[in-house]
Fold this protein.
Amino acid sequence: MAVLLVVLAVVVLLGLWGVGIYNNLVKLRNNRENAFANIDVQLKQRHDLVQQLVATVKGYADHEKEVLTRVTEARAAAMNATTINDKIQAENALTSALSGLKVAIEAYPDLKANQNFLQLQTEIADIENKLAAVRRFFNTATRELNNAVQTFPSNIFAGLFGFHKEPMFEVTKEERADLDKAPEIKF
């Protein structure tokens, strides 16, 4: 009888331990999804501001249609992305397109002095800073989930219940090449 109670106690403890690991994995996954929801809020503001910026620049740069088209298409793709991974890819494309727009803007000194443009530029810089902060939080949440999914013993439960390693919100190869270059300063 005592052996049966010991075995039963061990089984109950192992069950509670397994439930604890599973619940932790669920919390980590939900934390990651919440972190991306915070990114979504900033991205919505970014998309609205990009639309205003493109409209302002169009008045000055009618012949820069290719750049403006690329930004507009990238914005539309970003707004239509549905999964976290698709959104990450689409937002990286939008960031790249915005970099091209910044280069095109350099050719228009009158535009750079326009008050509406300056205000939009300031707001976009603010949004980009906020996006950087929420992306860092998202990547932290993703790292915590990935650590739990890949480390023993939670990796056993992760495999059983369909948890898997998730991608970070990282800089694309194209952006990495730009970041590796020294900044060009003009006066």
In short: The chain has a mean pLDDT of 83. The chain is about 80% helix and 0% strand. The first helix runs from residue 2 to 60.
